[in-house]
Amino acid sequence: MPKQSAQSHRKDEHYFLAEKFYQEAASAGFDQVRFVRSALPETAVSDVQLGGKIASVRWNAPIFINAMTGGSPTTGKLNASLARIAARLQLPIASGSASVIFSDPSVKDSFTVIRAENPSGTVIANIGADKTPAQAQQVVELLHADLLEVHINAVQELVMPEGERNYHWLANIQAIIAAVTVPVIVKEVGFGMRQDDFAALQNAGATVIDVGGHGGTNFAKIENARVHGGGYEFLADFGQNTVESLLEGQNAGVPLIATGGIRTPLDVLKALRLGADAVGIAGLILHWLTRSGEDECALRLANFITQINGVAALLGASNLQQLRQVPVVYGPKLRNYVEQRGLALL
User: Fold this and answer.
1) Measured between alpha carbons, how far is 225 from 19 in angstroms, rounded to an integer?
2) What integer pLDDT is reported at residue 1 of this predicted model?
3) Quick one: how far is CA 190 from the chain centroid?
4) Which value, in Å, is the radius of gyration of the alpha carbons in the chain?
């Protein structure tokens, strides 16, 4: 058996540490948002249609399996399972960062397995913002992808000993968007965004923006643990959470995806209410898959979708437009953030 490269080993470390640090109670800000429900919702579960169309791709449900893994034999097996779950439930699926293939081509199969196991579904490729337009297109072609995620992960790179130290990425993101043959989602990896980020990415041509808020998988914590206390422990709570990032992006001008700390169907509905057009789930699904196996994970995810529709009906919302009219109240911490940032309450 060939020796595993350092990059491939890092992918395994990311997976094991993500599961080790998984928390049932996330800190993505959804506790600061409450729906004000009516006792007379005047709707039915069968009426609910929360799917939509993002970047010319129609989605049957408001959620998808967001970027997680790939880059090693172990994570390739995970990607195969995730792809089969996506095919079974007709959900879009994003790969983890495929940037590793340029330093270790032997791991390509850990990514191509996604399309192999999900031949007719929506597949989203993923690459770092520092890679060239040609490399981005190569990843799209490798996965026969329908969309491309370009991830921005400056905090992770700083904490990672072998990470990048040059974060001049915007011009390169614009070049990638202009060059690739599929629509581009630009996404954070768990530290959130602020208002001017959305404007800059829209001007660069991003088709969709994933706010990637703090509160879910924490790559500062993961990278710090990889080096057994690298000195960046103080960044464990760094950045804007998912709810704060959605409010920062309320004038983004492009569709938004909410990812980061999604734990319940109610979190999904709150994210949609606050401006998300779709919701990405990663850590929760990976946790289910790791603890319960592929079949049980698929069943739990199917039930999760059923519950989203059920609770939407309780709120009297049969579609996204109606959901965004349901009144909400905000907790004091979020109101304080909104006031200091000069944002509007949605």
Assistant:
1) 13
2) 44
3) 8
4) 19
Q: How far apart are CA 293 and CA 275, in angstroms?
A: 33
Q: Is the pTM of this model over 0.90?
A: yes
What are the start-end ranges of the E strands in the chain?
A: 33-35, 52-54, 57-59, 63-65, 93-94, 123-128, 147-152, 184-188, 208-210, 256-259, 278-281, 328-330
Q: Which residues pair with 328 in a beta bridge?
A: 35
Q: Which of 40-49, 164-173, 205-214, 223-232 has the lowest mean pLDDT?
A: 223-232
Tell me: the pLDDT tens digits for 272-330?
999 999 999 999 999 999 999 999 999 999 999 999 999 999 999 999 999 999 999 99
For the four alpha carbons of 225, 226, 230 and 235, in that order, the dihedral sign comes to negative
Q: Match 């080096």 to its residue by tokens.
A: 227
Q: What is the mean pLDDT of the segment spanning 201-220? A: 94
194: left (phi over 0), alpha (psi -120 to 50) or beta: beta
How does DSSP assign 62-84, residue by residue?
Answer: SEEE-----SSHHHHHHHHHHHH
Pair 124, 150: CB distance under 8 Å: no
Buried b / exposed e over 142-169, threshold 16 CB at 10 Å, is bbebbbbbbbbbbbbbbbbeeeeeeeeb
- Dump the DSSP string for 173-187: HHHHHHHSSS-EEEE
User: Do 154 and 147 touch, CB atoms closer than 8 A?
Assistant: no
